[in-house]
Every structure is written in C-alpha cells, then in structure tokens.
Design brief:
- By secondary structure, the chain is of the alpha+beta class.
- Strands 1-3-2-8-5-7-6-4 form an eight-stranded antiparallel β-barrel.
- Strand 6 and strand 7 form a beta hairpin.
- 30% of the residues are buried.
- It comes from Streptomyces olivaceiscleroticus.
- Pfam families: DUF4937.
- This is YdbC family protein.
Length: 201
C-alpha cells in the first residue's frame, strides 16, 4: 500500500475547505483506498492530509489523469505545500485499514533515520514502539511507512484527544531511551491533527 502525506499552510480557510469537498471525486478512482485529514493542533493554519492507494502504479495513473482537475478547486487557498510518498512497511497494532470514521485524532511522526541504523530502527518499531502504542488507551490502529533516503512515517489514529493525552511525555522518553532512538534518528518532526470528518473520502 502507498501512503501519501500532504502538509500545507492554508491562507483561505473557507476556500480550502470548500475545495476539500471536491476530493470526494477520488471515490471512483481505481486503486484508491481512502483519504482523511484535518488541522494541526499546534500550528495554526496548517492542514495535514493522508491518502492511501493500493499501489504506486494506481497512484501514478491517477496523477496523470484526474489529479489536476480535482486539485483545481484549491488553487490559491494554501502555500508551502509539501507532499511525501511512503510504502507501507508494517502495521501498528494489527490489520491497518484506511478508515477515519471512528477516529478524532491523527498522530504523525516523520523520522529521518541514519543509513547504518535502519535495521535497528525498524526492529525497535516492531519490538518497543508498536506494543507500547498498541497498549495505549484510545489507540485504534496505525502504520509505519518508508520512503527512499531512509525517511519513515509513523501514522496512528486515536479515538479522542483525551485518550491521546494519556500517552505522556515521560513515558515517551523512557521508550525512546529503550529503543535508542537518538542513535537511530538524525531528525524527528511530528504533529497532532484534529480530524475533520467532512474531509474524509
């Protein structure tokens, strides 16, 4: 499965949200599995979207045929658009499905991993982070995606902001030490996103 992550700074909120509804047109696209997104909780005006495709071939076909027509409604409503593509590596919890209806919060962690530490990083995701997140109240499902150049995205869906709050900083620090995160990773950026139900396709 291919995961597309889009982050942008919105300059015309009403126009952007109106344009967002046009993406319902994705439903007829071959290989399309789902899309959702919302507003950053920590960065005003920043929107995140994640879309899922069965394969890179289906995604490339969509980009060549239909993308520009659907995207036209949002031209001029945002700036600093950044798009990254990731291949699904492993599930967080079990049986990831690109479904947003039962979730309120999307958590994103983008990691640039040192080339000589990729195998260790992936092992720690599986043995340390995955069980810890799977056992957190309110955590529904997630995945680890990989892009060329040792870039990884940890994406997780949560039932509510209150439940996400139970995943506390001191617990994260203990897990990071146990997983030797500082040795594995050259840089980490993340965000917590309040999902907008009207953006779900």
């Amino acid at each position: 499965m291919l995961v597309k992550w889009i982050r942008c700074t919105v300059v015309d909120r009403r126009g952007f949200e109106r344009g967002q509804r046009k993406w319902a047109g994705l439903l007829g696209e071959p290989g399309f599995r789902g899309q959702g997104g919302g507003w950053s909780r920590t960065r005003p005006g920043v929107a995140h979207l994640v879309a899922f495709w069965e394969s890179r071939a289906f995604y490339d076909s969509f980009m060549a045929r239909s993308h520009d027509r659907l995207a036209a409604a949002q031209v001029g409503t945002f700036k600093n658009g950044q798009t990254r593509l990731f291949e699904h590596e492993l599930d967080v919890k079990v049986g990831f499905r690109p479904v947003f209806a039962d979730a309120d919060v999307l958590r994103l962690a983008y990691c640039q991993v040192r080339a000589d530490r990729v195998d260790h990083y992936k092992l720690m995701q599986e043995k340390v982070w995955n069980p810890a997140m799977a056992g957190s109240p309110g955590m529904l499902r997630g995945l680890l995606g990989r892009a060329p150049g040792e870039e990884f995205l940890v994406l997780s869906l949560w039932q509510s902001a209150a439940e996400r709050g139970k995943y506390r900083p001191e617990r994260l620090e203990r897990l990071a030490l146990r997983a030797q995160l500082a040795a594995d990773v050259a840089g980490v950026t993340g965000d917590v996103v309040d999902l907008e139900p009207s953006w779900t396709v």
